[in-house]
Amino acid sequence: MNPSPATLTPILHDVFRQVVENLPDGIGTRLKPGRQVTRHGTRSTVLLSGIWDRHLPTCVVDPRYFKYEHVHDPEHFYSGGTDWYLQFYLNPNRIYQNPGELIGRLRPALEAVRIPGFEWHCAPNWIGVIHRFNLPFHPQRLTDYLVPRYTRLVRTIHPILIPILDAFQRDGSAAERAAVIAGRQPARVRNVMPGPRSAELSRSVSKRMRQQVLSAYAHRCARCRRTPEAAGSPLDLDHAKPVCRGGLTQVENLQPLCRDCHVWKGLRILRFAPQAP
Ligand SMILES: [Zn+2]
């Protein structure tokens, strides 16, 4: 008999409880499971359950595409030939801020992971570490099978994720974050005061503004003061207060950073004042 969301949900909650018991506190307390097993939006026989990190910066990453996931896929749409799979996965297209930076740090770390039975998976919209398996459905057997493997997966992957996730900071309500992601001003703010102009809400910087910022900083990195030639990379214009945290595209909120300093700064709010070279 095939499982349904109703039969799988309590099993997965039980698995989650046991996995967390086996994890160090610093990892277990960060994790939260989905409330219930759900059907895939377009493939209704595919059943999904997920585990997330509470520190996942949802203004940066779409949480539906950055998680641990256990999947029942009886028609083998995604599994590559097995009825079940267990994975950590992310979709690089669903990272909304500095995806190059996040993927640049995560990808090589994930690719280097070695867990018996798991393999590295890499496609443009799906990278991760996956274990595929077949198992006739039986609640206790599924639990016994999943707990050690899920534990090993999280125990291995999470120490890689923690410093990266914590380099990002989240703030604002879900509605504010959604509005920022959509490039709009949050509705309740729009109603009470005249908001910033749309150019200020957009991430893109005009040529004129770019020149203005670069010359204020003498065409050097605002942090390390190197020229692009010395840094070996062009200067990026960084939002001192990131757009996803409500920062605006204004000269006062922009600063040139070399690639190294840009990666180092991440999504923190940090402003380096212009200075004579
Ligand atoms: Zn620099």
Distance between the termini: 72 Å
Q: What hetero molecules are in the model?
A: zinc ion
Specify the helix fraction band: 25-40%
Order of helices and strands: HHEEEEEHEEHHHHHHEEH
Report the mean per-residue pLDDT as an integer. Answer: 85
Q: Which regions are unreliable across 5 or more consecutive residues at pLDDT < 50?
A: 169-173, 183-195
What class would the helix/strand composition place it in?
alpha+beta
Strand-residue proportion = 15-25%
Strand count: 9
Please describe the biggest sheet, giving its number of strands, its sense, and whether it closes into a barrel.
7 strands, antiparallel
Q: If helices are DSSP runs of H or I spanning 4 or more residues, what is the number of helices?
A: 10
Q: How many domain regions? A: 2
Radius of gyration: 22 Å
**What characteristic shape results from the CA principal axes?**
elongated
What would you say about this model in short?
This protein has 277 residues and is an alpha+beta fold. The protein has two domains: 5-167, no CATH class; 174-265, no CATH class.
What features would you describe in this structure?
The chain is of the alpha+beta class and 277 residues long. It has helices at residues 5-21, 25-28, 99-111, 139-167, 174-181, 187-192, 198-201, 207-216, 228-231, 259-265, and strands at residues 31-33, 38-39, 47-53, 66-72, 84-90, 119-123, 126-133, 236-239, 254-257. 37% of the residues lie in helices and 17% in strands. Strands 1, 2, 3, 4, 5, 6 and 7 form a 7-stranded antiparallel β-sheet that branches. A two-stranded antiparallel sheet has the order 8-9. Zinc ion is lined by residues 221, 223-224, 226, 231, 257-258, 260-261.
